[in-house]
């Protein structure tokens, strides 16, 4: 079924009887050409591009719970491509370009809103680093603009530029950055993949891999064995747990990142503002909630919830630059599990086991990467070669000393 | 969270800085023939378990002890807190 | 001042009158009122508009679960959007406005949305607004955003103060209803340290709303007596107006006390609110239960509310929502409301009960049937009832109480991912087995809905938590009615029947969600927005779950619940920040010479939490460059002084001190002579440069290590890691002495002459050569440390004294240096001189650079193990053509060479694929008369003299540059050895 304004009107006038399920609820078949483990944003996007872009057949997505229930459904919805390093920037710019055409591509309004993202600058050293970054963005074909404090003030008149502990000395803006309705991304990809024949199987937990003679033959699941020509894993927040079933140890730790939303408010924040020095960033959703966050809690956790000190830390950052937000009320706090890699950058690669492929380690940058991650993982699964924008995301980069370390924090995942 | 420091008693975790897996105590022998591989695994690969985890915390705003804390990553329950120095010695580290 | 709907007496102080205004109209109420009770007393039912359809709405509840009656409270900078009228305590002069309307509350132009409700179903926006693509941001979204949202922020800085505090107790009791009070009395009398917190401004919970007696007293009087006794116990802390917002790990609870929200403005020196972190050994959760409504067509009109809320307004506030009231119920509790209201003289139009076996009444009519529709544009006027025999009745009523059963308030039991379990007798979820550690649940929150059950449950919970032995005290006799309920969620065939009143989610939306495959409880929530409003579904979620269960052919527990997340009720962002906002966001660290520098008119810069003098403008200097150039030139010409206290300092002592430094630095320290200082480069274990500094050997077993300002803390932490975790048997002790010593760089050709005037010993070049260090005395006996090290490249020293003498030493240096025109210089001049000298700093040691990149690859000693050595040998860190640090100067001396610009080959294309390197640090060199820079260039050490393009498209710079040595000044190092 194709969605359109006409269809909405027609259904409204005929009692909405014509809407059908956005995706089927099939029973698993005995064998697929490609099985994707993980019905989150990346897994569903992978299946979508495998079917649509790479014309692969007999694809299944296995999800242990309900699709979109992981980080794609619990992030702060920001998209951007303001990266510094060669290994990253082309990939994220590719992702941003995919975002820009996504809704028409998968016929679902994910409310992609390029309202701009602004990184505030508070010191000369930070300015030097942001100029280098902005130049890297432009040299890679992305957009970037250096804003003066006055320009920022004009857009955000209630920003605390007069009495800030760390005075605002300008900002790096990417106008093509913005926000997306996160759940709709999962649903749009699911519906699109389903429309191309992909079986999306919910409540189907993978309990093990069947590996013989160094080759992966399929997966054991809560719904029985499912054979597969190739198995792709895209299970952010569960990567180490899943891959340990193939006796793999990964270069990552899992950490909790909290996020917050306020009660609905009439529009105040036109774009995304990031106060890196104060561990705070914020945007406003279409519904009116201020969506904000900050640092990791900092300790390994699979609990999907955090603790009070970080809540306070984030709100302190908020009140440092937006003292007008003091009387807005925080409505809900939640936590997502970030698979924090050892250099802060992801992995999209084959494993040493034939037929077993891995996508993970997205730290807290996974949402914005969703389209490109799916596209590049599909490319790898379909062609057995890395996509040109994802060649650096290899497993062996740590062994070889080819880290992609945007923040320069080294092999301590909670600092990325 | 509250960390029951072996010398100081219960302290708020906000006083501590986290580092990670306590296996970081087991720094490989740099003179071994396999040192390159050993250090790669030591530096980069983690069990990252969902469950009990021995991990290193530094009492940054306290007595500057490094502690090995046994904590459940699913529930955040803490079952054991030891001075990292004692753990290191028990694992054969010396000078 | 009509207050036409006041009925009798209650817990409101009629002896005093409070004036307030709502939407510009003045009204009167009394102390003890909420805004909602006072408005209802004045005959005002319409208090708000819904989110999507802008339907007229009045209060559904009398508590913090309220979805509808949200207002903008106060004005000016204190305006609080989305404030629940049902919990806002009335004060004299209270000012409130309705919100989320276009036009007036009565004539909201956006109520046109309601006419188009057929188009605005659940998730309609996912299916349209996609063409043309550019129209989303330009047209559709701005319209949607403007219409969405609820109340408005003033966008003025919050003028109030918030505080934070810490409390510790044996037993935290959450909720001061019958269960909580009973628990508190039990624990308090036993001598335990007790905190009793309740979100209301009057303790007693439902006892204040009911007519039940406890023993000989009314419930409210019993509660007041209990509170008085508790107040007399020194071991009990009563915290009213305090919401426990979250149950965090290890018995830590967050609680917000609204200290001043019941007043016009906070008293002088008082905060608006306080965020308490409560550390408790045990917790009794006695948070009560919340009644739930029943869904039927047009069940959202002002005047339709929970039956228990009608009871609260009557019994506690002496307010009838209307003089003609009907009740719709599926359980016995609804009949209580009718009886209480009847006793206060309110006309009961009828009690409509879905059960055939409903209790009858002599006082009013009980109908077996269902309310199927209502009338009344801005407030209820009629209810249409379909009787069991199929006939219809129209009830003339201005208020309709709904009683669909009670949901135990399990919220805090689930904050650590516990899941509630289903209790079929109550037709409700009750706390599950996996409670937060140390928590016991009592009373209605546990599913004990009777007063007697609450009293005994509370006492038992306290005894259990504290391990009290002995006989339980006899409890007063109290209401002990059984729960008699027939689950009934919605009227068959209804469509526009509201579940989530704030977000306008109707039964029809849930059905559509199911039809389109959004059937898991989380999909239902996210697709329809059920339960995502400011009340987080406290009154709406159960109805949605029940309908989804029916559609999916499952039971309610099979469908499950969404996850309860903190905070329990929405909480001001300001209170989480406390006083850490604006200037007080982070503490300020001041250097020992700060006061002196202020007196000189220095300009300060934030360096982490430090404030450092950036430059010292003199009269007549109009630009920062003029000051900095002068400071640099004066220092290189004669002598300058700079406060470098912020550099990290670590005292390293012990017989293994040298061996320890050998471990942490990649270069060797074992053979460093006593009295000598050496530059050291520290690697992380991954082989990347971590920090650099100097280590001065003051004695065989005593070193002083310096770090960069930024890395003082992480380096110290790292050193302790190596000491405690890797080398536990080394005889070495560390102490961070950054704050203990004031340290000044004295640099320039006349620096020795200057220092000779204050130090007490020979510091001639022979006696105290380059890189020497020593403990000395100055000024005739003050202990000090002297290091002959140079960051500027000049003949230079760093002198350190105990911090208490720092200010005096700076003044002394300026005094004795007058004859040399000693010039204080700030961080800018410091930076210029180090770039001129080619010294790496933070911009170069950026966490991705190796010793090799910095041109120091050969410093990594092959003769010993050190942290980072093994991994620094990986192929990717040692490839041909790697980045090397170089100097960069403009071909045209007038051109800039800005930091952050990228290097491109002279004749090559300008794009990322051809990137050759980048500029890390740049400045104008007053000594050379042009800009200079340091940077990293591929294979840079082989490319000195090469001409390249330097581009910064971001800042519109494109210049030709020449690659040079990084050492622009005195490359042979003659000056610093002079």
Overview in brief:
The complex is a heterotrimer of chains A (416), B (95) and C (978). Chain B is α+β, with helices and mostly antiparallel strands and 95 residues long.
Describe the structure.
The complex is a heterotrimer of chains A (416), B (95) and C (978). Chain A has ten helices and 18 strands. Chain A is α/β, with parallel strands linked by helices and 416 residues long. Chain A has two domains: 29-77 and 183-251 and 343-415, FAD/NAD(P)-binding domain (3-Layer(bba) Sandwich); 113-176 and 253-341, D-Amino Acid Oxidase, Chain A, domain 2 (2-Layer Sandwich), CATH 3.30.9. In chain A, helix 2 (41-52) packs parallel to helix 6, helix 2 (41-52) packs across helix 9 and helix 3 crosses helix 9 (366-383). Chain B contains two helices and six strands, in the order βββαβββα. In chain B, strands 3-4-5-6 form a four-stranded antiparallel beta sheet. In chain B, a hairpin with a 5-residue loop joins strand 5 and strand 6. Chain C is built from 21 helices and 50 strands. In chain C, helix 4 runs parallel beside helix 5 and helix 9 packs across helix 11 (541-552). In chain C, 60% of the residues are buried. Classes of the chains: A alpha/beta (416), B alpha+beta (95), C alpha+beta (978). At the A-C interface, helix 1, helix 3, helix 4, helix 6 and strand 12 of A face strand 6, helix 3, helix 9, helix 10 and strand 30 of C.
Helix content of chain A: 25-40%
Number of helices of chain B: 2
CATH architecture heading of the largest domain in chain A: 3-Layer(bba) Sandwich
Structural class of chain A: alpha/beta
The major sheet of chain B is characterized as: 4 strands, antiparallel
Mean pLDDT of chain B: 97
Instruction: Provide the CATH top-level class of chain B.
Output: Alpha Beta
- Broad CATH class of the largest domain in chain A: Alpha Beta
Task: Tell me the strand percentage band of chain B.
Answer: 25-35%
Q: Assembly state here? A: heterotrimer
State the end-to-end distance of chain B.
33 Å
Low-confidence stretches of chain A: none
Provide keyphrases for this structure.
heterotrimer, A: 416 residues, alpha/beta, FAD/NAD(P)-binding domain, D-Amino Acid Oxidase, Chain A, domain 2, 2 domains, eight-stranded mixed sheet, 10 helices, 18 strands, B: 95 residues, alpha+beta, Folate-binding fold, four-stranded antiparallel sheet, 2 helices, globular
